[in-house]
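Chapter summary example: a protein plus flavin-adenine dinucleotide.
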Amino acid sequence: MTKRILISGASIAGPALAYWLARYGHEVTVVERAPELRRGGQAIDFRGDVHRTVLEKMGILNEIRNHETGNGPLHMIDAEGRDLVTLPASFTGGDVEILRGDLARILYDRTRDSANYAFGDSIASLTDLGDAVAVTFESGRSSVYDLVVGADGLHSNVRRLAFGPETQFVKHSGYHVAVFEAPNRLHLDRDALLYSEPNRGLALYPIAGGTSVNVMCVFKADGATVDHRDTDAQKQLIADRFHGMAWHTQPILADLWNAPYFYHDSISTVRMPTWTSGRVALLGDAGYGATCGGTGAGLAIVCAYVLAGELATNPAHQAAFTTYEQETKKLTRACQRAAAGAGPFFAPKNIHHRTLLYKTLTKGPMLNLLNKLTTKATTAITLKNYPTPTHPTLTTF
Ligand SMILES: Cc1cc2nc3c(=O)[nH]c(=O)nc-3n(C[C@H](O)[C@H](O)[C@H](O)COP(=O)(O)OP(=O)(O)OC[C@H]3O[C@@H](n4cnc5c(N)ncnc54)[C@H](O)[C@@H]3O)c2cc1C
């Protein structure tokens, strides 16, 4: 039966779910707070059979391959630019790697004709009427939906409205991450560089055919708090925390203020005993995010497939929600565990210890083991075959 479904958030999880729901014939609206599709962000890697299967089912694997970053290995370097350890591309980039912004664009292009996107708006209130959810929006509009899905990230608005304040569920790792685009001052070709000092690390990843780099700044928070919607305050925090850092950091940091895009957040994990309630479900970072660990986008895409598939299988949404949670729980926990080391990897307390550790881990058999462990996390689910969707993808390419 066709349902009216509202999704909050148009990044990765939201459009991935919109794709499946529209193909199952539902009437889908996606509301996104930003005025347009948000670009930018780090590279996202897909690894293992589960990711590949879902991307193939969505018909986007080849398109993702066409947008591969093509990044080479990551070199951990010292202040003089000398190599300390080299991490191969297979470890840092998985089987296929794409920039988050490019992936968001692909998903949006696949769904913009079959889902109704409302940019520059946000849900103001949710009222469970029993047989539907009444929704008011900040724009003043109001409507009624059968289901509402929060795919609105770490600081989820739907989670706050339906489950309670963020402080109950978001566990801060003690680190922050920022990513911005800057000119390729060091003329990097394919290889990425990571320079770290105790508790702060700055990595450069070439993008845009080598004309720009993604600058990634990771640092120990040490109590820093900043409004996640105040970009200038966030930039100032980065400037303060990386002040005085050696290597080429200072000119690179100056590019922060004119960056074409900028992303900053705490590295946090969302821990919830349940991510569905009544007619509301959470998807992706909103329900089980881990920021920055290289597994979040793949997790969101797989869980979107499961949620839509369960809704197609179970006529009653309660049963679909329950099975969605049961099916994805192990995978979400495994991905969160795999992401836990991101902060200390980029911004270790002791650089020498990290160098020694990764010298050992990048030796042949250890590297295979490390790759296997990461792939084990992203494949910690047995995918079901859900009913074949009958509605075509409307967008033509
Ligand atoms: C611009 C951007 C850059 C990113 N860069 C990185 C990065 O460099 N490294 C990294 O580890 N992770 C990054 N992320 C997070 C990463 O995309 C996610 O961890 C992962 O892909 C899971 O995606 P998601 O769709 O669940 O959540 P997210 O990608 O966080 O998307 C949530 C979406 O919800 C929207 N939203 C938020 N509040 C509301 C609201 N009230 N109403 C409607 N919409 C709302 C946001 O604007 C966003 O589009 C970035 C996210 C964004 C949006």
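Key point: The domain at 4-68+99-170+269-350 is CATH 3.50.50.60 (FAD/NAD(P)-binding domain).
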